[in-house]
Protein: Polyisoprenoid-binding protein YceI
Amino acid sequence: MKRIPALMLAAALLAAPATALAQATTDLSKVEGGHFTLDKSHAKVVFAITHFGFSTYYGAFPDLEGTLDFDPKAPAKSKLDVTINVKGLATANPKLDEHLNSPDFFDTAKFPTATFKTTKIEVTGATTGKITGDLTLHGVTKPVTLDASFHGGGSNPMTKAYVVGFDAKAQVKRSEFGVDKYVPYVGDEVELLISGEFDRAQ
Structure:
């Protein structure tokens, strides 16, 4: 008899993720808009680059700040503004991190941050779009387009905050931003994988 409450508790714990997921919806007619701030603990930019043609090397920019003005009824009118702490890059290799921060690459003593500000949003599907904006990196500003997908919106069951989440992909040529050390041996084209949650400002 004593095992029944334990089994009930286990069942409740197993059901919790499904309940949490049920809080989010991709139906924009049911999503709330407003002014949002990026949840730094649930946001990251991952980069991938070829290494001498032998492998793909990965790293990340885990320290981000940003704001989003989101209109689910007219997504194309939304605005995104993000600042990346380039100096906080992480590759799990301290010596490589130090080298990437040096004048050979990002020169973060002079250019500690990068920014992305939207200039245009094109809706391409029920939950997809192209977000074009100005990326400023290493003192150079170039237009970049993100292929974005809406992950969902709803009330966070833990914090009770209203949240919207997105994923995005992009490709940039680092040489166009003056970060051209070892090109073409270390790849020029850099793949970016981006994910972030935004909490609606109270």
In short: The first strand starts at residue 24 and ends at 25. The chain has one domain: 30-200. The CA atoms of residues 1 and 95 lie 58 Å apart.
